[in-house]
Amino acid sequence: MVTRDVLLAEFDRETTLTRVVLERLPDDRYGWRPHARSFTAGELASHLANLPGWAMATLRETAVDTATQPRPTVATSRAELLGQFDMRVAEARAALVTMTDPQLGETWTLRQGDRTLFSMPRLSVWRSYVMNHLVHHRGQLSVYLRLLDVPDRKSTRLN
Fold it and tell me: Which residues of 36-53 are buried (b: 16+ CB within 10 A; e: fewer)?
């Protein structure tokens, strides 16, 4: 089995779970924030929806300079959010399907202008800065939804 097949199974599962959480954020709660220094719910959900775009940069490039990256847009509705997420997931999955083990072992670098923040194998970047990041922020958004008293999927089915 090649490494990408393991990564694809995990990617499919985690993005499916993430979409379920993103679907639950009501349109009228995008501006809510639990604390003045926290993301709004819309900003956090948009960040989560943008993370598969990081996957694309990880798979298609050997380096990214944060100083030259445009600011991602913040969705203002569930339809916009899910459209962005679905597009990025499809693109990232298509890119992942093409990866070989040697490509996943290549060094990938994150820079901020002239400063190198880190260099590590692409596979490590995928696991740490794409997948773990996705799971982390999905959990964070789940807490927001709980604070907003948004029913979870199980309780919605029972009602």
Answer: eeebbbbbbbbbbbbbbb
Q: Report the alpha-carbon distance of residue 149 to residue 159 in Å, rounded.
A: 15
Per-residue confidence in pLDDT tens, the chain, 159 aa: 789 999 999 999 999 999 999 999 999 999 999 999 999 999 999 999 999 989 999 999 999 999 998 888 899 999 999 999 999 999 999 999 999 999 999 999 999 999 999 999 999 999 999 999 999 999 999 999 999 999 877 654 433
Query: Six-digit token pair at 139?
Result: 């959990």
Side-chain half-sphere of 43: how many Cα atoms within 13 Å? 9
Please report how many Cα atoms fall inside a 13 Å half-sphere around the Cα of residue 1, on the Cβ side.
7
Largest CA distance in the chain: 56
pTM of the model: 0.91
Alpha-carbon span 37 to 34, nearest angstrom: 9
